[in-house]
User: What shape does this take?
Amino acid sequence: MSVDEVLIETDGPFGIITMNRPERRNALSLSHMRALTAAFRRVAETDARGIVLAGNGPVFSAGHDFADLAGADLAGTRELLLACRELMDTIHAVPQVVIAQVHGMATAAGCQLVAASDLAVAARTARFAAPGGKGGWFCHTPMVPIARTIGRKRAMEMALTGDAIDASTALDWGLINRAVPDEELEKATRELLERATQGSPRSKALGKQAMYAQLDRPEADAYTYAIEVMAAASQTPEAQEGMRAFLDKRTPEWPA
Assistant: This one.
């Protein structure tokens, strides 16, 4: 894979990771997913406060690259799907807020990327699909984060019909946070990311990781876990500074 197939840029306090395979509609080949995973880990080690995930070309991502999969044996296919899981897990694990900036189509594993991101903003002309339901290879792994994001009945509809949904429906179903005019996509993405990265970066990182850890637990277990995390977090310099600043009616000064 060309090193230029994943671009890493800096825009003020934010890192921008761009899928740059427009000729392949940003299809997620094995090498491309590994490069994306490496890119997230690289930005995670910087002082960036947030990460934008975008795609060059006419679509956000067409999903898995069938050029890797047609004729692949079981071990090879499993390797690719495990690399995809590693990418999704890395998006959850990095301390920064990750926001998907979606245009065109987000299909199958491309839609999985949207669901796995912490936040998502889409152009009104964007479309989302898990098309395996109308083909010969069901979208089993893309539906893991999609179902957890939009709920069982809606996930079943997407998975079984394979039909694309528009940005308004994706917003109504909770797959994305905003649906905006195409020309406002970058601006709206940055505005939401700026709002989502206010406050202490370390507190935000802990909060993000704890959210994912408790979301799929039974409510009683989730409370047990969250109480311990929140109690421990109260002892951090950031938490104490935030409380003191509130009581003193001043702007907090976050520890470096």
